[in-house]
Amino acid sequence: MAQSGTSTISAPQGGGRQHPDGTTRRDFLYLSATAFGATGAALSGWAFIHSMNPSADVLALASTEVSLAAIQPGQAITVTWRGKPVFVRNRTPDEVAKAKADDKADLKDPQTDAARVKKDNWLVLLGVCTHLGCVPLGQKPADSKGDFGGWFCPCHGSHYDTSGRIRRGPAPKNLEVPQYTFTNDTTIRIG
Predict the structure, then answer these.
(1) Do residues 184 and 93 both lie within one domain?
(2) Residue 143 falls within a domain, yes or no?
(3) Are residues 92 and 119 in the same domain?
(4) pLDDT by residue (tens digit) across 8-60?
């Protein structure tokens, strides 16, 4: 059989016209679909990760300013910060002296009073017992202040002194001191 002098051009596999650089329309469609899919996946991933950020109301509670002007010596107030109670107490000179004297006591979680306060008479603590998260008594004048004159957690019997240090009971640590600063002589910012 004789062959003719004409060559046959075969159609590219998969159909479609071939561009002079060797690509087809199908190649373009595959690339476009892949790019749109990757963009959609990235946007969905970003939306998912962004949904884990704190909401605006939580960010608004990131810090709280507290006026100390109305708190008399011996009085205490409770404010809320990040959904937790914060005890702010204007300690009397006797309470300050007792807290400093207790620096030498046998403490379960040793800390000096000076390490827990920024000004001797002002004590700022998270009002959450370090045993099981209860709120200790001791903020109101009629509350039991425990055997050491500070706070008492009636749930399991933890006693805290006038510096918020654990003295008796199952609580493993002192009441936590949150981050706070004095913005002036009569105002603190917690957080």
Answers:
(1) yes
(2) yes
(3) yes
(4) 555 555 555 666 777 788 888 888 999 999 998 888 888 888 888 877 776 66
126 and 47 housed in the same domain: no
Residue with token string 């704190």:
54
Residues catalogued as catalytic? 156
Three-state secondary structure readout of the chain:
CCCCCCCCCCCCCCCCCECCCCCEHHHHHHHHHHHHHHHHHHHHHHHHHHCCCCCHHHHHCCCEEEECCCCCCCCEEEEEECCEEEEEEECCHHHHHHHHHHHHCCCCCCCCCCCCCCECCEEEEECCCCCCCCCCECCCCCCCCCCCEEEEECCCCEEEECCCCEEECCCCCCCCCCCEEEEECCEEEEC
The pLDDT of residue 17 is: 66
Residue numbers of the domain that contains 27: 21-53
122 & 49 share domain: no
Residue 124 lies in a domain: yes
pTM for this prediction: 0.66
